[in-house]
Amino acid sequence: MATKTGVQIRTRAKTKSFVPRPYKVILLNDDVTTMDFVVYILMEIFAKNFNDAVDLMMKVHKQGRAVCGAYPKEIAECKQQAVLQAAKAAGFPLRCEIEED
């Protein structure tokens, strides 16, 4: 950019990319929710294939909890609400938490 004095000024814009912090969505084990329903939730809400869903369901069953995915906060909250609504509609007490990664 040239000015009236003939001096050329160069400017450079600094850009910062914003990467949102991921939040883990965690399913918790209980004694009532069926394994089939947990597999269904993992496939429908978290888009897991059958084998991955079964593996995660077994992890929830054996370890008491399992991380189903990590997402930006708003998406993690939406997935949590989807799990809780589906569980309530089916009559299960399945619990789902989110925590910052």
TrEMBL record:
<keyword id="KW-0378">Hydrolase</keyword>
<dbReference type="InterPro" id="IPR014719">
    <property type="entry name" value="Ribosomal_bL12_C/ClpS-like"/>
</dbReference>
<dbReference type="InterPro" id="IPR003769">
    <property type="entry name" value="ClpS_core"/>
</dbReference>
<dbReference type="GO" id="GO:0008233">
    <property type="term" value="F:peptidase activity"/>
</dbReference>
<dbReference type="GO" id="GO:0006508">
    <property type="term" value="P:proteolysis"/>
</dbReference>
<keyword id="KW-0645">Protease</keyword>
<dbReference type="InterPro" id="IPR022935">
    <property type="entry name" value="ClpS"/>
</dbReference>
<dbReference type="Pfam" id="PF02617">
    <property type="entry name" value="ClpS"/>
</dbReference>
<feature type="domain" description="Adaptor protein ClpS core">
    <location>
        <begin position="20"/>
        <end position="97"/>
    </location>
</feature>
<protein>
    <recommendedName>
        <fullName>ATP-dependent Clp protease adapter protein ClpS</fullName>
    </recommendedName>
</protein>
<comment type="subunit">
    <text>Binds to the N-terminal domain of the chaperone ClpA.</text>
</comment>
<comment type="similarity">
    <text>Belongs to the ClpS family.</text>
</comment>
<comment type="function">
    <text>Involved in the modulation of the specificity of the ClpAP-mediated ATP-dependent protein degradation.</text>
</comment>
<dbReference type="GO" id="GO:0030163">
    <property type="term" value="P:protein catabolic process"/>
</dbReference>
